[in-house]
Specification:
single chain; 117 residues; alpha+beta; Nucleotidyltransferase, domain 5
Length: 117
């Protein structure tokens, strides 16, 4: 099993647990160049809020989308947008990625922004 398959296996386990709880989910995905965050409804079929480093507003502020500062900015944005939709409590789905670096920075920024998880 390679690195990506291991990550996807961990991700499936987390998603199954969150789906069983029917909790609103904050899902994070990262690539080498960008980081993406989406808040899904409890049933998992509807995206309530989304933010990423691909957006024009974020790209103007950051020189690179693949660093901790960009992840912090995306975390603040996703918290702001989720709270605007009335979502305060979420389950954090790190997508099988290690809770370190950009993933940790995004999570901490979302917590500072008012999301609880």
């Amino acid at each position: 099993m390679d690195k990506n398959q291991s990550r996807l296996r961990r991700s499936r386990q987390t998603r199954a647990r969150i789906a069983q709880l029917k909790a609103v989910r904050l899902a994070v995905h990262r690539s080498n160049s960008h980081i993406y965050a989406q808040v899904y409804s409890g049933c998992g079929t509807r995206v309530i809020a989304a933010a990423s480093t691909v957006e024009e507003s974020v790209r103007k502020e950051m020189s690179s989308g693949g660093n901790v500062q960009a992840a912090t900015l995306v975390g603040k944005l996703i918290a702001e947008r989720a709270l605007a939709q009335g979502v305060e409590q979420v389950a954090f789905d790190r997508g099988g990625f290690k809770y370190h670096g950009r993933i940790k920075a995004l999570a901490e920024a979302a917590r500072e922004g008012g999301l609880k998880f």
